[in-house]
Amino acid sequence: MKIDFANLQKAFQEHEEEFLSVTKEVMTSARYILGKETDEFEAEIEKFTGVKYALGVSSGTDALLLAMMALGINAGDEIITTPFTFIATAETIACLGAKPVFVDIDPQTYNIDASKIESVITDRTKAVMPVSLYGQMADMGAINTIAKKYALAVIEDAAQSFGATQDGKKSCSVSTIGCTSFFPAKPLGCFGDGGAVFTNDQTLYLKMKAMRVHGQVERYIHKYIGMGGRLDNIQAAILGVKLKYYCQDITRRQEVAERYNSLLQGFVPLPIVKAKNDSVWAQYTIRVAQRDKIQEYLKDKGVPTAVHYPIPLHLQECFAYLGHKKGDFPFAEKAANEVMSLPMNPYLTQEEQEYIINTLLKSLHQ
Fold first, then answer.
1. Is the peptide bond before 355 cis (omega within 30 degrees of 0)?
2. What is the DSSP letter of 185?
3. DSSP code for 113
4. Among 179, 234, 244, 291, which residue is least crowded by beta carbons within 10 Å?
5. CA 152 to CA 147: how far, in whole Å?
6. Mean pLDDT of 64-80
7. 3-class DSSP state for residue 230?
8. Bridging pattern class, strands 177-181 and 195-199
9. What is the reported pTM?
10. For 247-364, CATH number?
């Protein structure tokens, strides 16, 4: 048996006629940038998240950059974040000349440990950027409490958690600005690059809306330094179709995760979802010793795996200037050496999952 990790072909085939119809409509109209489809999609994700304002943007990375630009993050400012994430989280901070200040993770959820944030706040700290990793929100209640105490902005990097909830509130709805990605392999993914920013603050919304188009408030009238960060209409149209079925997809992802949990219980350390959280299971990530050997065995048997992420950011060469060393963030480092993501998508059958698990269990005894 050969397993597909994300099964993007199936994601297309399931609603093929609708995708072809909406993309043809965009191409027939020849309105490719900032048109009806983008407006409609933004209105739908506002409704979905319960946030007043949403803007479609060109990628999850650009969403983070746009959020910080709107908040006025400058060279020398400090942003507190996690070292256990995709590089875009800290890379965008560095791109603005600001300093990423890392805090170790909660070893159960892999998200930033909120109890460690306050100890690294300085007079240069301007924001906290928690990452809602693997589909589960960080401890946003605790983070928002700290941020309010020190008058800091909170930017949720929700690239993997769009649709997740905490205490009944949707990811992207509980911070100063929420940012997500619609990269194809995300739980809600388009057929190219895409992302979105969310806020309840009208002033920030209007600023980001202008900054998304090079700071333009009227044609060729530029109030801000901005960027070319628009979501194109074809991707918005595709996302509009997928959003109609997204709650169903989340349920199917949760069912896949539950099957994994029941069949793997007692064999490997399983993902832990906090009681107040619902995860959208962007990844199903376990921990294993001798990971390289296990991955190779699974690959030979047709079971793909991935590591999110093998090198924590404080040990990446590009962040050497921050002066960190091995041992500075032990939980992040331990996770980086042990985590392994199994195939996760809404289309995995019970037969496929049983094959994945049986193969994994055999690999553990090699």
1. no
2. T
3. -
4. 244
5. 5
6. 98
7. strand
8. antiparallel
9. 0.97
10. 3.90.1150.10
